[in-house]
Amino acid sequence: MPESILQVRNLTVHFYTYAGIVRAIEKVSFDVYKGETFALVGETGCGKSVTSRALTQLIESPGRIVEGEVLYYRDEGPVDLLKLDEEQIREIRGNEIAYIFQDPHASLDPLYTVGYQIAEAMEVHGKVKSIKEGIKKAVDILRAVLIPDSERRVKNYPHELSGGMKQRVVIGIGIANNPKILIADEPTTALDVTVQAQILDLINQLKEKYKATVILITHNLGVVAETADRVAVMYAGKIVEIGSVEQIFKNPLHPYTKGLLKAVPNPMTKIERLEAIPGTVPNLITPPSGCRFHPRCPFAMDICKQKIPELKEIEDGHFVACHLY
């Protein structure tokens, strides 16, 4: 069996709004193995980013982690990240578990040079003695993320860089402390297609170089097929299927996963009309009873409306939450 670096069990996050309680993620469970690229896939608003932020208690008010545990396997043994106080979690967040957020424009501070921002990430965790020493190391980090003329670029402010370069700087901040887990939250959303390919290739190279584990958050199935080892498919705040890339693409089990794959256009065939999943994403203040996908599912039965399906292992490493199985 592969060695787990992260075990998430029954993770539940609610947002307490004036309109009501938004049940953003409900009893989410999955394992992440050491050295793999684990992808969380699903349409916008399904809870992917909330899940990734909840792992290190990055849920802000009015959100609250209601229940669950996140076991992180450090060298000295497992620790539940949700039971740590703010000081303890800050030692891990940005150091052993780092993030690459989806919008580089919002991730970088316009008032400081990119070199200062990389140096600050290292100084906070005691990897360098001063910002001055950190800026010297930032030159090597910018070189590692393939930014040309890094001695000059280290003095640039974010507004002086292109979108692709800004995303590389954000990746540089993420890898500055040589993290064990790198969480990439839709790292290519704001970039054009050619730059997207470069960024994904770069994340793969850095994963190999630093022996890191990558959790990739995306809705792009092409990106998943290209970069991931295993996939968890999310729908309306719940995980509906988990498997290897081969299992998910060659033998999808859940009707939602099948619908997602059918919606991807095939450039090799002539298509009159793109396939779509009927209906709309449910309101998570009043989610459907039973299986949350049943109002849109072509195979829905009476039990689907009454009982929440459990995640069951159908074949080795392939799990699905569906009453059809």
UniProtKB/TrEMBL annotation:
It catalyses: Ni(2+)(out) + ATP + H2O = Ni(2+)(in) + ADP + phosphate + H(+). GO terms for cellular component: plasma membrane. It is a peripheral membrane protein. It is found in: Cell membrane. Its main location: membrane. Gene3D superfamilies: P-loop containing nucleotide triphosphate hydrolases (3.40.50.300). SUPFAM superfamilies: P-loop containing nucleoside triphosphate hydrolases (SSF52540). GO terms for molecular function: ABC-type nickel transporter activity; ATP binding; ATP hydrolysis activity. Keywords: ATP-binding, Cell membrane, Ion transport, Membrane, Nucleotide-binding, Translocase, Transport. GO terms for biological process: peptide transport. Its EC number is 7.2.2.11. InterPro entries: AAA+_ATPase, ABC_Ni/Peptide_Import, ABC_transporter-like_ATP-bd, ABC_transporter-like_CS, Oligopep_ABC_C, P-loop_NTPase. It holds the Pfam family ABC_tran. It comes from the Archaea. Residues 8-261 form the ABC transporter domain. It is an enzyme of class 7 (translocase). The complex is composed of two ATP-binding proteins (NikD and NikE), two transmembrane proteins (NikB and NikC) and a solute-binding protein (NikA). This is Nickel import system ATP-binding protein NikD. It comes from Thermococcus paralvinellae. The lineage of its organism: Archaea, Methanobacteriati, Methanobacteriota, Thermococci, Thermococcales.
